[in-house]
Amino acid sequence: MLRVLGVDPGLTRCGVGVVEVAPNRRARLVHVTVVRTPADMALEQRLLRIADGIAAEIDEHRPQAVAVERVFAQANVRTVMGTAQAAGLALHAAAARGLPVGLHTPSEVKAAITGYGNADKRQVQAMIAAVLGLAEAPKPADAADALALAVCHAWRLGSPDQVGSGPSTLTPAQRAWRDAQQGTGADSPLARAAAAAARGGARGVARGAGASSVGGPRLGA
After folding, report:
1. Which segments are annotated as binding site?
2. 66 has which bridge partners?
3. Distance (Å, rounded) from C-alpha 81 to C-alpha 85?
4. N or C: which end of the chain has fewer CB within 10 A?
5. What does the domain layout of the chain look like in residue ranges?
6. What is the pLDDT of residues 19-61, one digit of tens each?
7. Which residue ranges are recorded for the region named Disordered (predicted)?
């Protein structure tokens, strides 16, 4: 089993999720949390809290690799600066422990998890719940994004040149999403899950996939 810790960087909410992925790409939730800092706290103290939170999660769960969202330019400079600072803390924590790091853009993660690079957050939440066999979609979105990053990185490590290259190498989640988009494979539980996600029914997704709760913390806001 490959254990990967994913970090969805942010200054107010920094998602941290840990998954274990088998060679057949079946993924299991280990832990997920969100490190929060108040907006009225001094910047250096906010960064210290995030750094301590990420370091504590790495030390407790001992991943074999760390996945971090690749920061990209956007119109809101203040937001991207905070995201970049939090991402740097994650990179430092991993490097200090000799852990390999993978950087993935949001579109890469969306494509790996849903099969569609422009999927919205609701679709990512729904499909990561189905992939991990959770009874409900991870909340808040930062938690789901951190888990999606971890799963994406684990799948890419398993076959770095093959993920998403064609129908023969699609993951079950990708095949389900493709089938739902094309209106085929309706009898597949994951296809029903993907179709439910497209309709916005996150809770229906888990029921349609026949998902059940797994060991670990309850996902909440």
Report:
1. 8, 69, 142
2. 5, 101
3. 6
4. C
5. 2-208
6. 999 999 999 999 999 999 999 999 999 999 999 999 999 999 9
7. 161-192
Residue 70 gets which letter from DSSP? Answer: P
Catalytically active residues are: 8, 69, 142
List residues forming the annotated binding site for Mg(2+). Answer: 8, 69, 142
The model scores a pTM over 0.85 = no
Question: Is the model more confident about 123 or about 162?
Answer: 123
**Topology (CATH) of 2-208:** Nucleotidyltransferase; domain 5 (3.30.420)
> For 189, phi and psi rounded to 5 degrees?
-55, -40
pLDDT reading at 190 higher than 70: no
